[in-house]
Each structure stands twice: as C-alpha cells, then as structure tokens.
Amino acid sequence: MKDSLLIINIANPYSISLINSIHYSYARALFIKDTFLYMAHSCLNEWTIGFSVWKITNPASPILLGYVENEDADAYGVFVKDSFAYVGDGPWDAGENYGGFRIFNIANPYSPYQVYHFVPNFIAGGATNEIFIKDTIAFVCDDAALFIFNVSNPNNPRLLTYYEEYGPSDILVIGNLAYLADGYFGIRVLDISDVYNIRQLGYYKIPGFVHTLRVMGRYILACLDHGGFYVFEYYGIDIEENQTSKKRLKLENFKIEKRKLSLNFSLPKEEDIQLEIINNLGKIERIIKLGKMKKGEYSINLNLSDLSAGMYFIRLKKEKEVILKKLILLK
Fold first, then answer.
1. Whether CATH 2.60.40.3230 fits 5-245
2. Could you tell me which CATH class the domain 246-329 is placed in?
3. 289 FRET partner, CA 20 to 30 A, in 7, 129, 202, 217?
4. What is the side-by-side order of every strand in the sheet holding 271-279?
C-alpha cells in the first residue's frame, strides 16, 4: 500500500473508512479542482509517470484520463489554475537538465502537454517543491530560493525576482502575506505586497524539517518530516526569531562599479566555498572555486566586463547552504 493514493470517507470523522486506493506510481502531491484530481508522482522502478489527471466524479471509482511521462525526475508539487497545471520537479537523477519548474496545458485532460520548463541549475540534483499562484504571480519553492514569476502568459512566463532562502518546501499566500515552510530553518511570515521588496514579518523556529503548511484563520499548521505536527498562533509582525543565524554563511554586501564586482562574505567555520555568476535563464556564466577557507571575513573582486547587460544572480555556496543575490549589469 505504500505506493498508493488512499481515498478515505470522512463524512463521519469518528469513523473514517477507506473507500478506494490508486496503485499508480508514488503519489507526492495532489490538487483537486471541481471533479478532477491532478497528481504529482515520484518515478520509481518501472514507473515513468510524472503528472496525471483523474476524473473523480465518483471517488470510489476514479478514472485515469491523461498523463505526462517523465523518466528522469520526480514531481514534488502541483498547483492548478484555469487551463494550466504548475508542477515542481525534483530529480532523482542529478543531471543539470532535470527537475525545475514546469507548466502543462491541461485544457484537454486526456492529453496534457508541457508548454514551459525552467531549470534554475542553482543546485545540482536540487528540487523544485511546492508552487502557489496568486492572480498572475507564481511563487515557486526551489532548493535554491523562492523564485517569483509573472505567469500572465503561462506559455511564456517571466522570472521577476527571487527571495533568498535555502530549501523552501511549501508556501501559502493569503492577501499580502506569504507563509513559507523553510525546511530546517522553520516557518517564515512574509509581506509580499511588493514582490521586489519582500519583508520578513515573523519567524518560528521548529526542531525538524517543515514539509507542509496550512493556515486556518490566525493559526498556522505545520507538518514535519519525522517530527510530528505543530500548531502556531500568528499575532502579527515582529515575532521573535530564534534562528542560528550566527552559524550560517553570510554574504554581507556587494557593489559593482564599471563591471567590477566587489563582495564581502563571512564564514562561521572552515568550509569548501564556490562562487558562481548565473544569468536569468539559469546558465552558469562563471565558476570560481575558492576551495577550503578558514573561519573569518573575506573580500572577493571579479571583472565582469565580458558579460552582456542584464539580470544575473550571484551564488555563494558551501556543502549544505546556498546564498543568492540579484545583480543587474547595465550597458
């Protein structure tokens, strides 16, 4: 049964009952809209189905309508709006062309097809997790950061910006607030009224990996991987943050003058460090392997005169942590 989707009757919460199960690959995430079920799958063994559409007019007898094969990646999350499904792909094969953020046209549920694929390429073998769509904005949780897209045209989305976090796994947006599950770093409450200037309003530290969030009124419900279930009450801004920020890699500041980049960062302990410059399509333009560096503060200078004008990302990373900063090069 471990590879099944279970359909449970909860009409009587004191006596729930199993009415059916779908033995079809490994269900990772679901989205239900009207009488349709949209499922994100893990590709295990002989299964190659990454995304599927089901008719659930009769929940006791779901009918498979269509699917998309994906032999190289697991689908981790799914969000459906209008005639499109937004899917987070996390590869089990660490190839750089796998995983990422995919959009499928589902106007014909019998024949869904891919119209867009974004591979951030910020972490080899990384994953895009859950996705949330608000109006024409897509909030995409990736192992590298929270990416923000304009999806007014789902066939040709535009990457607007990102919010620097390591490994966000889930996000819910209500009004101008976003509730972000930040993996091992707890839960963050963000003001997203201006997506180019996201502000953290509150923070909850939890001893475990926050996997899934739900919000009911002022209550935040959090499910942890192997860590139980927590309920928090959100009172407003300025929740005291009890995170181990002093133990994390920090990119203190950077500046660019005449295509010469100067940046400062600090290390809490000896680490292997790599610096990369990445364009807005996810292609790595420059790799600087700094090697093993001792605890302390450092300053790095780079000449970027060979790069064309546009938006880039600075990525500073160690073994289990990544910091991203947006960089604009003018003509």
1. no
2. mainly beta
3. 129
4. 284-293, 271-279, 310-318, 321-329
Q: Do domains 5-245 and 246-329 have the same CATH topology?
A: no
pTM equals 0.69
Tell me the two tokens of residue 280.
């807005």
105 in the Ramachandran plot: left (φ > 0), alpha (ψ -120 to 50) or beta?
beta
Contacts of 155 (CB under 8 A, 6+ apart): 103, 115, 116
- Amino acid 135 reads D
Percent of the chain whose predicted confidence (pLDDT) is above 90:
23
The residue extents of the domains of the chain are: 5-245, 246-329
> 131 forms bridges with which residues in the sheet?
140
Question: Which token pair is 91?
Answer: 């590869």
Q: Judge contact between 164 and 188, C-beta under 8 A.
A: no
Arithmetic mean of pLDDT, 221-238 = 73
Strands 36-42 and 49-55: antiparallel
Radius of gyration (C-alpha) of the chain in whole angstroms: 21
